Records
---
Amino acid sequence: MLSVRDLDLYYGDAQALAGVSLEVPAGAIVALVGANGAGKSSLIRTIAGIEKPRAGRILFKDEDIAGLDSHEICDRGIGQVAEGRQLFPNLTVLENLELGAMLPRARANARRALEEVFALFPRLAERRRQLAGTMSGGEQQMLAIGRCLMGNPELILFDEPSLGLAPVVVQEVLHTIHVLNGRGLTILLVEQNVAVSLKIAQHAYVLENGRIVMSGSGAELLRDDRVRQAYLGL
């Protein structure tokens, strides 16, 4: 579904990504792991159209989307659950969700999508009139995922979905990702909890200093001594 080929990204003269290539098959969960500053969020932002690459290709369903504006990429079926959630705190839960359905691809089925989001997250239905900024971190993450789903995505980019959340909430979020994948959604997951992300991913890549240095199945990387020492403290 998604193929990144030889991607270079610069911030001024500083190179953030160097020749990055990866594949995300349709229906899979693919994890991207690495230390802070390795370039994971930069890669997610580039796929989403927030950053513009200097070189390389980003193919989504065989169409090169590198350099397109983010709203165009969203309307092609790539949704993003951004790091830090990026909600509108002074809007209600319902208003935040409705904004997610503003894409042309999503407008016709907005009502059904809203029902599905409320079925997935009953707490959002209960608090539909509550301001997003007054909710707990876990509830805000539910809302961020729900808003993404309102856009009718086929591929979802998750950027650090468990950041700042209590352990029990982290498990809920990762379970939700598993459920969404079971419903046919393709997932590219950047997650600080390396062990958990590798356990749920069919395939994974290790990013260091803007370069892919290792790849394999999630289970293979979990067993790899270099990964265990660098990221799992084992």
---
Amino acid sequence: MGDVVSYEREGAAAVLTIERPRCRNAVDLDTARGLRAGFDAFESDPKARVLVLTGAGGEAFCAGFDLKSDGLEVDHPAGPLGFTRLTPRKPAIAAIDGWAVAGGLELALWCDLRLATPGSTFGCLERRWGVPLVDGGTQRLPRLIGLGRALDLILSGRPVDAEEALAIGLVTEIVAPGAHLERALELAERLAAFPQRALLADRRAAIEGLGLPLDEGIALEHRLGRETLAEALEGAARFAAGEGRHGAGA
């Protein structure tokens, strides 16, 4: 993946890090290809149950497309910033410290959960340069925070601090300064410890069912849930035997 992106296994998590702090982890062509390779490595590793996406240096998660570079593969089926037109089969967590703007915001939106330090900043700052959102932002942001709030951010291009991001549902949790990666790895291990078939089925039903009519979404949930019944019956038997009472293990 070269010098611009690193991929490491940390327990049940795969940590994918953009390593371009000198330019606020902005993505050029090599970085996009490195992110794509990291995504492929995560998807193909059965022991990597959660992806943690982050940026090096302490100033930025990702400032989006590197406007000083030679360009990106805009028409690549996986997405200009590596994998933004794909949906991972397993959960992904964004560990954010600093700027998560323009395409960096779109990378954060690609993840299931977003943890951010108090000094983090979000926004569609590409608005001022006439650069469109082409990494899923126009679709994922309204699904996450609602159309009205999404249009506010998309049209105005205004920056949003961590407190407002938490209040509008853009951020899942604010963590202590410098603790974003540690907390993401802790959360990844918690998710990885759950029985995986039901977790992945419920995640898939939520994602794929969002745009469906209610009856079709319920049918999808039913079909995916049925496929996990053996694991569900095993878990119910453990509970009946006394395991996990009073919220233990939650």
